[in-house]
Give the backbone structure.
Amino acid sequence: MSNEHILYLKKLKRKRTLIVAVRILLFVFIIALWEIAGRIGLCDPFIVSSPARVCRTIANLYSQNDLFPHILTTFFETVAGFVAGTALGVLIAVLLWFCPFLERVLDPYLVVLNALPKIALGPILIVWVGAGAGAIIVMALLVSTVVTVMSVLAGFLEISADKLKLMQTLGATRTQTFSKVVLPASVPTIMSALKISVGMSWVGVIVGEYLVSRRGLGYLIVYGGQVFKLDLVMASIAILCLLAAVMYYAVAAFEKRISRRFGRL
């Protein structure tokens, strides 16, 4: 490599290091400000809690052997809903791309389903599936599936018409056109849909746990609010943020691998 290229790589590395450092400092600043505001009376610790109180609450849950059962319950339900919802959404999007007539017929229904507040289906799901983990997973699946279908299908339909005509001119079948042109070009869109689906799956699970669960982080939030243990509410939210971040970065790492693979094709 030339000296200029080496200097350029060092500059990029310093920039990435600076970004990470600023992120950490910003996080530390927010936590410190939150703690100090509670200690000097700028805000009521009973209402907004504090980092120290949140840590004590998490430690108490751990000592009572209640921490990991709640975390694992919510995490399992979210992963199950995310995987099922994403897989089903992508399959439906592929089916609609292969059948333009069906896509045009179902388009308004997808819009209505996407706009429908999924929590309204909660009582029906409880009757259909039962008051258990199944209803929660189905809720997460419903929330993430429609978003995935619309996002992925939009990516499929944005492929240049010139590319599609070129494949038709070369005598490619619709399956070959999809596998050689549409799918590789839609990888960024699919990955973006996965990232959106992560957040929507967490929303669906927490909403489901609000309604029917007796275990999980959503249940802890509801219980803490009912008995005015707001430290428990904030501790559960903090754990949710951590788990959601871990799941998001796992999807981001998967995106990098997939992008490199399709980039070599």
Q: What stands out?
A: DSSP finds twelve helices and no strands in the chain. Residues 107 and 150 are 9 Å apart (CA to CA).
